[in-house]
Design goal:
By secondary structure, the protein is α+β, with helices and mostly antiparallel strands. It has two domains: 57 residues, no CATH class; 244 residues, Alpha-Beta Complex (Gamma Fibrinogen, Chain A, domain 1), CATH 3.90.215.10. Helix content is 33%, strand content 20%. The chain has eight helices and 18 strands. It is elongated. Its main location: secreted.
């Protein structure tokens, strides 16, 4: 391109420019050029410093114009290249983003599918646990587990523990209970069991009145059902509390007489004489800690005696249930016992402490960390 432009300009200039023999050789044969160069030209003086060649003088403004045109041409080509590069780069970025979006869509679909599978598996595990614990009730009616044991001893050599149907006297319906037939000669009706922390004891009054949980696992039998059992005519019941610490130490507390008042008295607790190795946490060390005769309290029914508040060391407590993570118990200004205590929500999970409280069971002056407890009642004598 450069050479062609120069030739055209030189031809236009005419007499102002003498073309060298190398340029004129494009229009003449090589042999003629050689002869002409060897013949001396009369009256012509060669340019000093140049041997055998003529010079071409191009005006500076033409040279500047040529260079400017060439620069503009190069700049135009560069702009076109940059535009093409920009288009290809944007297309590449768009393609990469679309590919990433497709990958995210696939990943989201996989996560959704995985969550569905986890939920399905969780349901299967729950169903399996229910099937494992769903022992069919023995269709042998009795007033309570002690009565069932007494009735079966003559016909069954070994009575198994499990879920039975009881029908206490003066009640309108039967209900299921778990009977322990192996522990201390059997005949025990389980009213509460804590073993693994999987059942939430943070419940309102209605749940504690009616009962909740799985009878073969963790459960609370229900204040109404316990009331019907222990208030049968001509019957007296003892309460036995079996405790297991985090380091698998066992202990117990027993009361030779146990009963509950009716719902209009908020199922107030009545205890007889204490015996055992865990200490009498129900009565504590002074009258303010005594939970014997205390009415039952829950998060929505407050009978704890804190009016308007209780002082617990350096803390002010307005609700003992709230202080014990909204669980229900026979609180009296909170007291030293709460076998329904459960961990705070942030701590709930595998390995979380159950916060079962039986403060009088101590080692080295420090209360044991209780991981499991069972409360059970048994008929002990008939009144005349």
């Amino acid at each position: 391109m450069w050479t062609t432009t120069v030739l055209l300009l030189l031809l236009t200039l005419g007499p102002r420019c003498t073309v060298t023999e190398n340029i004129t050789s494009f229009n003449q044969s090589e042999s003629v050029g050689e002869e002409f160069s060897e013949a001396p030209v009369k009256g012509h003086k060669p340019v000093r410093g140049v041997k055998g060649r003529d010079t071409c003088s191009i005006p500076c403004d033409i040279t500047v114009k040529l260079l400017r045109d060439e620069k503009h041409s190069v700049c135009g080509q560069l702009q076109q290249s940059l535009l093409a590069f920009g288009r290809s780069t944007r297309k590449l970025i768009r393609d990469v983003m679309e590919e990433q979006q497709r990958a995210l869509d696939v990943l989201s679909s996989q996560v959704t599918e995985l969550m569905t599978k986890v939920q399905t598996l969780s349901s299967e595990v729950q169903r399996s646990n229910n099937e494992m614990y769903s022992v069919k009730p023995v269709q042998s009616h009795g007033r309570d587990c002690s009565d069932i044991k007494d009735g079966l001893m003559s016909v069954v050599p070994k009575i198994p523990s499990g879920i039975y149907i009881v029908h206490p006297e003066d009640t309108d319906s039967s209900f299921e209970v778990f009977c322990e037939m192996d522990y201390m000669d059997g005949g025990w009706t389980v009213m509460q069991r804590r073993t693994d922390g999987l059942t939430d004891f943070k419940r309102p009054w209605a749940d504690y009145a009616d009962g909740f949980g799985n009878l073969a696992g963790e459960h609370w039998l229900g204040l109404k059902k316990v009331f019907h059992i222990v208030n049968q005519k001509d019957a007296r019941f003892q309460l036995h509390i079996a405790l297991v610490s985090e380091d698998d130490v066992t202990s117990y507390a027993s009361y030779d007489d146990f009963s509950l008042d009716g719902e209009t008295q908020f199922f107030s607790l009545r205890l007889g004489r204490y015996a055992g190795s865990a200490g009498d946490a129900f009565r504590g060390y002074d009258q303010e800690q005594n939970q014997d005769t205390a009415p039952f309290s829950a998060s929505d029914v407050d009978n704890d005696g804190c009016e308007p508040s209780c002082s617990m060391g350096d803390r002010t407590v307005e609700s003992c249930s709230a202080r014990h993570n909204h669980t229900g118990w026979w609180f009296n200004r909170c007291g030293l016992a709460n076998l329904n205590g459960c961990p705070e929500d942030a701590e709930r999970g595998r390995g979380a402490p159950t916060r079962i409280l039986w403060d009088t069971w101590r080692r080295g002056g420090v209360p044991h960390a209780v991981k499991a407890v069972t409360m059970k009642i048994r008929r002990i004598a008939s009144n005349s």
